[in-house]
Every structure is written in C-alpha cells, then in structure tokens.
Amino acid sequence: MATNAQSSIAVPAVNPKSRSRVPLLTVVSLALVALWLIIAAFPFFWTFWGSFKVQSDFFSKTDWQNAIYGVNTIRQTGSAFTLEGYQGAWVDEEFWRNVINSGIVVFFTVVISLTFGTLGGYALARSGRRYAFWLLMAALVFRAMPHITLVSGYLLPFFEWNIWGILPTTIIVLVAINQPFTLWMLHSFFLNIPKDMDESAMVDGCTRFQAFRHVIIPVMWPGVITTGLFSFLLAYNDFAVTAMLLSSENETIIPAINSFLGTTQVEGKVMYAVAAVVSATAPLFVLILFFQRQIVSGLTAGAVKG
Amino acid sequence: MKHRTFFWFILPTLSAMILFIALPIVSVFLQSLFVEHEQVLVVSESCGPFGCTPTTTVDTAATAALQEEQPLGRYNGLNTYINRSHLAFVEVGEAWRSTETFGAFWKQIINLPFYRALIFTLTYTAVVTPVVIALGLAIAVGVNNLPRILKGPSIFISLLPFLVTPLVGSLILFWMVDSDGVIGATIQRIFNDPSLSLKASTALTWTMLIVYGVWHTLPFSFITFYAGLQTVPEDTMEAAMIDGASKWQRMIHVVVPHLAPLMSFVTLMLLMDNFRVFEPIVSFKAEAHATSLSWIIYNDLRESGNPLYGSAGATSMMTIIGVVILLTPVLIRTWRDFSRKAH
Q: Coil, strand or helix: which one is B100?
C-alpha cells in the first residue's frame, strides 16, 4: 500500500519537539501509531466509498483502482456514484423493517437494563455483605459465558411455550444477558458516590428508597449514560441471540445482514449487503462522534477500580 | 443495608439473571443428557408378481407423536459427552494406540470436531491476548507523545474497529481480503498466482482470523493503557530521569509496573471476549478450516429442520466449564482481596 509507506516516512516531521535529535524509539513509536490509525480507519473508508460503486468495481479482479474511480460504475450507470446498493437493500430487500425491529429491541433493552441495573448496582454498592460479593462473582462468571451457550438452553422451552420468534422474548433475553455487565459497571459508579449522601438523608428520616430517589438519582446520570451506551452497543451488535431467537420477519439488522449474504450471492446483489453494512455502521459512527468521552470513561471505569 | 431492602433492590435484576441465565444453564445440562428420537420405522411387505420384498418406511405420524410426548428426546446419560463429536474417548484412544509419532496422533485429533474447535479457540485466545496487550501498550505510549490536537482524533479512529458490530467488522475485512477484494487481488498479483486465496489454506485462514481479532480488540487495551498513562506519577518519572534512566528504561521500570494492575484487568477482559470468538468465523465463512466452540454450538442449533439440542447442550456445558477454569485465578484473587478487606 503506497499510502502506508508515505505516512510512516512523514511522521518525524509532524513532531517538532524531536526535530533536533530524533530518538529512534520515538520514530518507531510514532510510525506504529500512524500505521495503526491507517489500519483502523482504512477498511471503513474503503467500504464506505465502495458502497457507492457496482460490484464489478468494488470486487475488481482486474484493477483495484476501479473501486476508487468507478470505471464500471460509470459504464453501467452513467455516473461514478450509484445508490443502487442502497436502493436494493432498503427498498427491494426491505431493510427498513429490520431497522425498525432493531430500534424497538435496542430501545427497550437499554431502558429495562438500566432500570434493573441501577437498582441492583446501588444495592450491591451499599451492601458490604458476603452475599453481595458472591452475587458480583456470579455476575462475573455469567458475563464471561459465550452467549450462544445460553441460547441453546432457550430454544426448546421457548418453542414449547410458543414464545419463540417474537421481539419481547428477545428483549427480555438481551436484558438478562446484559445484566451482569450493567451491574458491574453501575456498581463501580455507585461506589464513587459518597455513602454519606444517602446516609445523611436517611438520618433525616428518608427511607432507603426515598434516599435513592431524591439523593442518588439526581447525581447518577453520568454513570447511567455511560452504562447505557454500552447496553446499546451490546443490544445493537448482538448476533448470537437475535439470529437464533427471532423469526425471519422479526429479524434485527445484524442477522438480516447475515441472511443477505446467504441469499444475495448472485451477481450484483452483494452490493446490497455492502450497503446494509455501511448503513449499520453509520449509527455507531455517530455514537462515537458524540459520546467519545463517555465511552472512553466507561471503558476505563472498570479498570480504575481494578 | 438491611437484608429486606437489599432484597427489593436486587429483585428485578436477580430474577432476570436467574430466569434467563441460571435456569438456562440447568436446561442446557438436562438437554445434554438426551438425544433426538430415532425415527419410528415400519416394515411392511409389498408383494408383486415377482414375490414379496420387505420395505422400511418412516412412520411420520408416530415420530411426530413421540416428539410431542417427549420433546427432549430419549435419555442418553453422559454418552453425548463422550461420542465422536465431543470428547471422543474411543477415537482418541484408538488414535493413541495406532499412531507412532506425536505428530500423527495430533493429526488425527485435530480432525475430531470438538478438539478442532477447542484447539482453534485456545490458539486464538492465546495469540490474540498477548499481542493485543503488547501492541496496545506501544500505541498508547505513542499516542501519549502526540501533540494534543492529534490525540482526540486518534482515539476516535481507534474506537471504530472496537465498537463496530463484530459480524459487520469482520465482513468489512473479509470483503477486502477476499480473492476479488483489494488486498486479496493485490496479493494474487504480487505472487502472480491467480488461484491464491486466503480462504484456501488452514494456516492463512487462522492468520486472517487472528489478524481480525487483533484489529478488533486492540483499541480496548490501547484506551485502557492510555488512561492509565495519564496517572503515571510525574515525580517518579523525573527522579528516574535525573538518575540517568533512558526513555526505554523509564518505560520498563516505571511505566510498566505502574500499569501492572491494569494489565491484569485487560488480560481478564480479553480472555473472556476472545474465548467466545464466533462472528468472524460466520463472516469469513471459515468453517472449513477453523471452527470455535461457540461456532459448533451455533452449527448444531442451525441444523436445518432437526436441531441437535443434545449435542449443542453438551458442547455448551463443556464451554461453560472452560470459562470457569479460565476465570478461577481471578475469582480466587478477588476472594482473597475481599476477605482481606472484610477482616
């Protein structure tokens, strides 16, 4: 990759501090950062650009530059950019249905997870008892279990009770799978809120719940927002649960993309999947754009507590 | 906090976890003890001009009735655990006896579905985790030395591979390395071999999956270490500098020890996440060369028309045991910390 080599050469000039005597270590470390940033961003950029091309350009055997200039796209559609893939995915394949399903699943999963999680996380943070510790340990083990192992336990009972394939079942399952993580995260946030606050409210005659309602809820929002972002990601990104528990008309976007792949291997249709993939990534992009600080603090929140 | 208050606060989350995590584990275990019904066969004689021939047909109605009556299937005890698709005691013993060298034995073992998946899962976990920790630390140090204005954008870009849906992220990479994709086609041109495909060999498929794993999880370790670097005590760094420690020595003797607790946290998270590797195998369509424990469970459940609940259950139970083994050191350490604090 030509771009690659260029930027690693250009790096030392970027850092004015080291101009006089550039230590080898600094050069190596900056080159590594530049290389990483290219590797991290390039696939997204490439796929986004390519999603506006026809298949013979994006998957060009003859010349990779076709994907950049869109030689075949111009020949087939008259313009270097085409919305064919998006039209195919959103209109022909009715991707918007999956988007609505995803919206419903994600919204309810996040709201219910946070409600359950704040109550439980608060209780765990304020109770120093042995059973609270064991609950946290159990949650850690649950958090580590591959989701698909649980799914194999759901299918048979869900078929028996005739609740397989519908959105509410998936929502409550995602809420439950989300709980261990939510509990840990909110637990560590509540530990950072001084005990004195709610305890002084209780000295003044509040019950525990009133103290929670009037003292803790007003100050807990930063933690709840951060946790909510991760609940969102878990519900939005899930494949194992949604692919196995939803019937095809109720599919959310991630299993829908997977089914696209199965059905659209015919010439020209792979671009539908490419367009769907770009559409599915867009909300995440916006999310990072607006909540970068919260995401970073959430990632490190568990770490700071050790 | 009073027991009663604690109970009411914890009730919603606890019931969700009991109903949808703890009980399903029980249900998985029960399922693993049963296997699917055999089809009910009816033997009838059909007589023609050239004599009678017995024909065997499947009695669909009776099979369905049996299925209805006992949805779990018939009791099989622990046999599913030791059959060919799981621990395969018989086959392993046979391979041990019949092969001369360890290499030949290994070759036979790696063809058994459970061991194949287990070996890939462990290799993936064991390679991706240390690579991600080392590279993450290196990049965190690099970004920390960047001018202020570049730090934010670098973190933004780095977050993308980590937060993108695993299935989608692996598809994006797959389309690039596919034989028609930009990287795949370029590699073919470089080696001048139009049949060269990353999907064609086991080694290349494994490499591709591991590269994806590093790409996907590197941001997590990078960001955690980056946050940790912000808290490195200035005084110690200055003292080390005055004592004549080089940049590298300061790195090894001050920064790394300071980040040690973070490292154990990152290792734990990475182990948990890497052990359940699943989506990239679906996206890369890599099952011919690499399967993981999660993938074989998925595959058993996908078995069209006739999901193998027993088989999936047995693999799930063994996966859960694997997770617990993986976590034991952490659990023991946390328990020690807790008892120390309590007394």
A: coil
CB atoms A277 and B171 under 8 Å: yes
Which A residues in the span 109-138 are in contact with B, Cβ-Cβ below 8 Å? Answer: 115-117, 119-120, 122-124, 126-130, 132-133, 135, 137-138
Which residue intervals of chain B are DSSP H helices? 3-17, 23-32, 60-69, 79-82, 89-98, 102-109, 113-144, 148-163, 166-177, 182-191, 202-229, 234-242, 247-250, 256-275, 279-283, 293-302, 309-342
Residue labelled with tokens 């920064």: B255
Query: Of A55-69, A106-120, A129-143, which gets the smallest average pLDDT?
Result: A55-69
pLDDT value at A279 more than 60: yes
Please provide the size of chain A in residues. 306
Element (H, E) at B75: strand B74-75
Listed in sequence order, the residues at least 6 apart from B216 whose beta carbon sits closer than 8 Å to its beta carbon are: B161, B162, B164, B166, B169, B170, B280
Task: Judge: B266–A303 Cβ closer than 8 Å, yes or no.
Answer: yes
Is pLDDT of A55 > 90? no
- Helix/strand/coil for A210: helix
* Residues 119 through 178 of chain B touching chain A, CB cutoff 8 Å: 135, 138-139, 141-143, 145-147, 150, 152, 154-161, 163-168, 171-173, 175-176, 178
Mean pLDDT across chain B: 87
- How far off is chain B from A61, nearest CA to CA, in Å? 5
Six-digit token pair at A263? Answer: 């059905």
Please write the tens of the pLDDT for every residue from A73-100.
Answer: 888 888 888 888 898 889 888 899 999 9
A270, A93 contact by CB (below 8 A) = no
- Cβ density class A3-42: b for 16+ within 10 Å, e for less: eeeeebeebeeebeeeeeeeeeebeebbbbbbbbbbbbbb
DSSP H helical ranges for chain A: 2-14, 24-50, 55-58, 66-69, 71-77, 84-87, 95-126, 130-144, 147-161, 167-192, 195-203, 208-211, 217-219, 221-237, 240-245, 253-263, 270-305
Q: A62 is written with which tokens?
A: 């003859």
Residues 131-190 of A with CB under 8 A from B: 132-133, 135, 137-157, 159-160, 172-173, 175-177, 179-180, 182-183
Residue type, B334: T
pLDDT tens-place string over residues A215-227 = 888 988 988 999 9
**The token pair that represents B183 in the structure block:** 């990287």
The closest CB to that of B13, out of A116, A237, A244, belongs to: A116
Q: How far is CA B112 from the centre of its chain?
A: 18
The residue among A30 and B39 whose pLDDT is bigger is A30
- Distance to chain B for A107, nearest Cα, Å: 17
Whether A59 sits inside 8 A of B282 (CB atoms) is no
